[in-house]
Amino acid sequence: MKVRVFTLPWQHDGSGFQDEAVVAFLADHDAVDVAQHFFMHEKTPVLVLVVSYREAISAVPRFGRTHGRPTAEDVAVDLDPDERRRFEALRTWRNQFARRTGKPPYVVFTNRQASALARRNPDSLSGLGEIEGMGPSRIEDFGQELLEVLCALTRPAGDGGGGPAGTAAPVVVGAEA
């Protein structure tokens, strides 16, 4: 496994961190873990990403999109209906969590990792650790909250799940009532 460090300053126009280099890098590499560090430098927010990675299996673009990044449709194509529902809920939670923490969604987890989470549906922190790319820093940062999301999606009827067995009410974790 290899490591690469990215320093991403905040764009002064308020559009977010300058992450183009990370996006381009991830087109040809598979991230195994990402640790993030935030600090201020001369009144500018800076996000540092420490990416543990390995080379992509194939140097040929794996998907039809720019930079070879998989879309949600690319990675969810083989999911059954229950897995697809979990996948979409996980992506929704990821985007909410990313906004709440000021991180890009792919730093939280990728579409490919969301697909693996939806398929395997782990029910413990150690189960999360079995998902490729769900390393110790991610599990520490949001593992318990992620398990709560997965649990809410599989809660039986009458248990607050919001519908028949196997269905769930909309997932909003970490919001105040």
**Low-confidence regions:** 58-66, 157-177
DSSP helical segment count: 7
Which architecture name of the largest domain does CATH use? Answer: Orthogonal Bundle
Whole-angstrom Rg: 17 Å
* Mean of residue pLDDT values: 79
Helix fraction bin: 40-55%
Distance between the termini: 43 Å
The count of DSSP E runs of length 2 or more, i.e. the number of strands, is: 3
Count the domains: 2
What is the H level of CATH, i.e. the homologous superfamily of the largest domain? HRDC domain
Order of helices and strands: EHEEHHHHHH
Main pleated-sheet profile: 3 strands, antiparallel
Shape: globular
Question: So what's the CATH class of the largest domain?
Answer: Mainly Alpha
Structural class: alpha+beta
Strand order of the largest sheet: 1-3-2
Percent range for β-strand residues: 15-25%
- From the 3D structure, determine the CATH topology of the largest domain: DNA polymerase, domain 1
What topology emerges from the helices and strands here?
Blueprint: E1 2-9, H1 20-27, E2 29-41, E3 44-55, H2 72-76, H3 81-101, H4 105-108, H5 111-120, H6 125-129, H7 136-154
Antiparallel strand pairs: 1-3, 2-3
Helix pairs in contact: 3-5, 3-7
